[in-house]
Write a structure and sequence with these properties.
Radius of gyration of chain B: 16 Å
CATH superfamily of chain A: Beta-grasp domain
CATH architecture of chain A: Roll
CATH architecture of chain B: 3-Layer(aba) Sandwich
Keywords (chain A): Membrane, Transmembrane, Transmembrane helix
Oligomer: heterodimer
Strand order of the largest sheet of chain A: 2-1-5-3-4
Strand order of the largest sheet of chain B: 1-8-7-6-5-2-3
InterPro entries (chain A): Beta-grasp_dom_sf, MoaD_arc-typ, Mopterin_synth/thiamin_S_b, Sulfur_Carrier/Prot_Modifier, ThiS/MoaD-like
CATH superfamily of chain B: Cytidine Deaminase, domain 2
Number of domains of chain A: 1
Distance between the termini of chain A: 32 Å
Helix content of chain B: 10-25%
Number of strands of chain B: 8
Strand content of chain B: 25-35%
CATH class of chain A: Alpha Beta
Structural class of chain B: alpha/beta
Order of helices and strands of chain A: EEHHEEEEH
Radius of gyration of chain A: 14 Å
CATH class of chain B: Alpha Beta
Order of helices and strands of chain B: EHEEEHEHEEE
Pfam family, one (chain A): ThiS
CATH topology of chain A: Ubiquitin-like (UB roll)
Protein name (chain A): MoaD family protein
Organism (chain A): Paractinoplanes atraurantiacus
Structural class of chain A: alpha+beta
Largest sheet of chain A: 5 strands, mixed
C-alpha cells in the first residue's frame, strides 16, 4: 500500500509528466521528503525556504485541506489520497500586501 | 492507423494566441463582475480537455471578499477541480475582475498564476457603463496578451 498523490499540470515537469505518483510517509513532511527523493525539486515548490507550506499551492488529504489538519504535521495513512492544486488567487493588490494578507 | 491520423486538426491551448469564447459566457462573466463590484469577482470556465473551448461557466466565491484581492475558497476549488476531472474537463479560462484599475495582470496575478494552459481573462469594472475585457497567457512569470474572439453559439451544446 502507498499514498497516491495527484499532481497538477504545473508540477508535472518534476514527475516526468505523470498525473499521479505514489509516495510513503506517516506525516505530510515525510511524504514530501519521500516524493522529493524520487522527483528532485518538487519539495521546493511545496515548501518555502522558511519551512512552511508554500502559499501558491493547496494540498488536500482525501477531502480536507491540510491547513485544517496540522499542515506539514498532518498524519497520513496508507491508502490516503493526496491532491495538490495550484492556489487560484491574485488581484490588483500589491504582491507583498497580498502575501501578508494570506498569512501563509 | 498511423499516429499522424490521430487527433488531427486538434489545437492545443498553448499554441493559440486567441481566446475564442461564446458571447453568452462573456456576458455572464461581466454580470458576475458587476454584481460583486466593488469587490473583485472570480471564476472558471471549464471545457473539454485539449479542446481550448470554454464551455461551462463556474462562478467562484472570492474567499477574500476584497476590492483588491481574490482567492478561491480551497474547499470549493477542490470540489470544482474534481468535478472537472470527472467530466474530462480542464480550466480553459480563469477570470477575475479589477474594480479600480485596468484589466492587466498585476504582479500578484503573475506570481500566483498556476495554470499554464489557461487563458487568464481580466475584466475591469472601474468605468460604470463600459467594461474593459482582456485575455492573457501567464506562463513562468511571462505575460502574453492575446486576442479575444467573441462568437455567438448557433447550436446549443
Amino acid at each position: 500500500m502507498a499514498i497516491e498523490v495527484r499532481v497538477p499540470t504545473i508540477l508535472r515537469s518534476y514527475t516526468g509528466g505523470a498525473k499521479t505518483v505514489e509516495g510513503a510517509g506517516s506525516t505530510l513532511t515525510e511524504l514530501i521528503d519521500d516524493l522529493d527523493a524520487k522527483h528532485n525539486g518538487l519539495k521546493g515548490r511545496l515548501i518555502t525556504a522558511e519551512g512552511g507550506l508554500h502559499r501558491f499551492v493547496n494540498i488536500y488529504v482525501n477531502d480536507e485541506d491540510v491547513r485544517f489538519l496540522g499542515a506539514l504535521d498532518a498524519k497520513l495513512s496508507d491508502g490516503d489520497s493526496i491532491t495538490i492544486l495550484p492556489a487560484v488567487a491574485g488581484g490588483a493588490l500589491g504582491f507583498a500586501a497580498a502575501a501578508a494578507l494570506l498569512g501563509r | 492507423m498511423s499516429p499522424a491520423t490521430l487527433g488531427v486538426g486538434k489545437s492545443h491551448g498553448n499554441v493559440n494566441n486567441v481566446l475564442t469564447i461564446d458571447s453568452a459566457i462573456v456576458d455572464a462573466i461581466v454580470a458576475h463582475a458587476r454584481r460583486d463590484h466593488p469587490d473583485e469577482a472570480c471564476g472558471v470556465v471549464a471545457g473539454p480537455i485539449g479542446s481550448d473551448r470554454p464551455a461551462r461557466l463556474i462562478p467562484m466565491d472570492n474567499a477574500a471578499r476584497s476590492m483588491t484581492f481574490y482567492e478561491f475558497d480551497s474547499m470549493e476549488q477542490l470540489r470544482v477541480w474534481r468535478e472537472m476531472d470527472d467530466n474530462d474537463e480542464e480550466p480553459v479560462v480563469i477570470y477575475h475582475s479589477h474594480t479600480a484599475t485596468e484589466a492587466y495582470p498585476s504582479r500578484t496575478d503573475i506570481s500566483f498564476a498556476g495554470e499554464p494552459g489557461a487563458h487568464y481573462l481580466l475584466v475591469s469594472t472601474r468605468e460604470p457603463d463600459s467594461e474593459e475585457i482582456r485575455s492573457f497567457r501567464i506562463v513562468d512569470g511571462v505575460v502574453t496578451e492575446e486576442e479575444i474572439n467573441i462568437v455567438d453559439a448557433t447550436v446549443d451544446a
